[in-house]
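To: structure subgroup
Subject: Chain for Friday's discussion

All,

I'm putting the inputs and outputs inline so they're searchable in the archive.
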Amino acid sequence: LAGIRVSVPVDKLAKIKTAVQMLALMTLLLGSKGSGVIYLDIIGKVLLWLAATLTIITGFSYIRASMRYLW
């Protein structure tokens, strides 16, 4: 879409997805051993899977929004 100079607005869900990704990375980098929190690794993995799911959902919404320009 950048080639045809079409701007697609950022969805609120995409911003939430980015925040969940950053939180997942922080928890996974810190880890259970570094923080002393027993289940921090599991929490980080759950957040990472949530971010992956949100990535698929927001990806479909961006594809749907751009379909009118691609055909």
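Points worth raising on Friday:
The two ends are 12 Å apart (CA to CA).
The mean pLDDT is 91.

D.
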